[in-house]
Amino acid sequence: MKTGWQTVRRHLNFFESQDPARGFWNFNGEFTNNTRGAGGNAIASLLLGYPTQISRATLFGSFGLRGWEHAWYVQDDFKVSRRLTLNLGLRHELFLPLTEAAGRLANFNFDPANPAPNLIPALGGPKYAGRKKDNNNLAPRVGFAYSLTEKGKTVVRGSFGMHYVSVHYAGQGALGRNVPFMPIQVFAPGSLNVGRNLSQGIPVPRFQPLNSAAEVQAAAAAGQVGQIQAVDRDTKFSRSQQWGLDVQHEIGEGLLVDAGYVGSRGLNLFSSYNLNQAQPGPGAVAARRPWQPISNIANLNFLGYFAASSYHGLLTKVQKTFKNGTTVMAVYTWGKSIDDSISGSSGQTNRPGGYQNINDRRSARAESTFNVPHRFVLSGVYELPVGKSGGVAGAVLGGWQLNSIATFQSGFAFTPSMAASNLNNAGAYQLPNRVCNGALPDSGRSISRWFDTSCFVAPPAFTYGNSGLNILRGPGLSQVDLAVLKNFALGFKEGAELQFRAEAFNIANRANFRLPNFNIGVAAGGTITNTLTGFGRQVQMVLKLEF
């Protein structure tokens, strides 16, 4: 039996300025015109040192996140019989919420009566900024291996395990970027009175606690608040349930066949959305923001652990080893990953950011953008049958080895979206209405028309589109790599050798294309203009000395 304990102390120190440390200085002709609004020159105002507006967002001093992580485990392996082995284990993990070295954290209060940054807007409040500890992170692990035959030619393996992930840095560090710890300084003297001179610079920001919605609203109206970060106070750490079943069978001598199924379920995954996303409609946007007491703030970024995912995959492998040292292996994988996580840190890079409708986040459940449904890899190692005669010729010509890898896989999914939104809700993207499938047959696809853009039309004004996420698929990937190598033994030291390698990546120089332009309503929609960077033919030769 094995048991153990682990304790980790996390330190993350940094200084961050959202804007350049010296701020932004804007000049126009207001202070050099003829007082009637005519004339004036921005360069002349710059030479006089009279800016029209100065702004800077900065963090008060250095910022130091601190966190404790504790874990213990117990594990044992049981040899039930000659043919059956069990692996049993249990792990418990405790990730305490992050604190800040000087208590400079502020969270968002979700009380609609007074929604404001609270808990630590003034120093000395609760160190976790209202976030709760999650003590229930028990992680059981079960596995088995069973030989169906006495000689061990066929083996079945299975497992299940629970795994937790520390998501400290997926959002919690944002609490230090809240007001009042990252204020925006704005100086706008207007068109008549000269304000700060260029030579005066920008003063050191002053700490001004904001304890109510009214104070936050006023600061936002003055341009002193850019956005507010809100971290879910009911902290639930991301966990993954993983299971699998695999069968290996040896046929004859040197031929191995392997087939297996793997599955996983992700819960409490990190994601985010804008709590103050306005509802679609005509007129002023601020009047349609859900949190009216602070409607001057367009972005209330909620960072939580509410997303989920699932994966199911079939893995097959055939491997043959020959007596002359040649090895051939073919691997095919079929899989499907689905999730509803929007955060960039989740790997969702090929679809619009955020949720189209924060009140219908379930509609974001779709195929993961990183999912590859089909992938086939054929590889081999072959020793060239030359130079067997010995002597000098054998030393030079013998021992050469040829390696090859051929990869073929499906393309990634992508989401057609409107190039211009008519939702009138300040920034949220809009999906089109889907009137037909949109996917073209293989024979009808080209880089100038990868999908049928006419199948996607603009929804009526102020309405969400009904098209889904990741409903079309981009170009696949095909690549063949080759390598030739030989090891030369060196006589000056035992075990010393010189290795020569000649490698060619994508030897056929096949063009592997990026995803098409998926914007609906522009002429470039549906076209492909770029190939994958770094996937052109590359040839290199290497000498390596080992001793």
Model description:
The chain is mainly β and 547 residues long. It is built from three helices and 28 strands. It has helices spanning 42-48, 213-221, 391-397; strands at residues 2-14, 24-26, 53-57, 63-79, 84-95, 99-100, 107-108, 117-118, 138-147, 154-164, 184-187, 228-231, 239-251, 255-274, 300-321, 327-339, 366-367, 374-383, 401-409, 413-414, 417-418, 433-434, 456-457, 472-473, 477-489, 497-505, 519-520, 538-546. The protein has a 17-stranded mixed β-sheet that branches. It has a three-stranded antiparallel β-sheet with strand order 2-3-11, with no helix packed on it. Strand 13 and strand 14 (255-274) form a beta hairpin. The longest helix has 9 residues, at 213-221.
What labels describe this entry?
547 residues, mainly beta, 3-stranded antiparallel β-sheet, 28 strands, globular
Give the SSE map:
Elements: E1 2-14, E2 24-26, H1 42-48, E3 53-57, E4 63-79, E5 84-95, E6 99-100, E7 107-108, E8 117-118, E9 138-147, E10 154-164, E11 184-187, H2 213-221, E12 228-231, E13 239-251, E14 255-274, E15 300-321, E16 327-339, E17 366-367, E18 374-383, H3 391-397, E19 401-409, E20 413-414, E21 417-418, E22 433-434, E23 456-457, E24 472-473, E25 477-489, E26 497-505, E27 519-520, E28 538-546
Parallel strand pairs: 12-15, 21-27
Antiparallel strand pairs: 1-4, 2-3, 3-11, 4-5, 4-6, 5-9, 7-8, 9-10, 10-13, 13-14, 14-15, 15-16, 16-17, 16-18, 18-19, 19-25, 20-24, 22-23, 25-26, 26-28
